[in-house]
Design goal:
Blueprint lengths: L9 H17 L9 E6 L5 H12 L10 E6 L9 H18 L2
Parallel strand pairs: 1-2
Helix pairs in contact: 1-2
InterPro entries: AB_hydrolase_fold (IPR029058)
Length: 103
């Protein structure tokens, strides 16, 4: 898990993206072996950095595409534990959806 600072920083997004890719390489994973669901709120102080991270990951098309990387911004939502419920619902749902079609 990566903790991102609450400012927009392209350098940090590049660094953490490379760390994620290095881990994927070390595990010899293929695109079909992992999925990243990214979600933030339009009023979340982490929103800009979270969007930067998703956009930077998307640039690495050898590792990420629309099947294993998704980003969503919830209108009006902010940073808080109650916001994790829809994140978990849609994130877990996407993992089960993915698992159903890869058997």
């Amino acid at each position: 898990m990566y903790l991102l600072i609450a400012k927009t920083d392209k350098t940090l997004a590049k660094k953490t993206s490379q760390e994620i890719i290095d881990k994927i390489k070390s595990l010899h994973y293929h695109k079909e072996d992992y999925k990243i669901y990214v979600s933030t709120g339009s009023n979340d102080y982490m929103g800009p950095q979270t969007k930067n991270q998703a956009e930077t990951l998307a640039l690495h098309y050898h590792y990420f595409d629309r099947h294993n990387l998704s980003y969503h911004q919830w209108q009006g939502r902010h940073h808080g534990f109650r916001q994790s419920y829809p994140y978990l619902y849609y994130g877990i749902r996407s993992f089960y959806w993915c698992a159903c079609f890869h058997e």
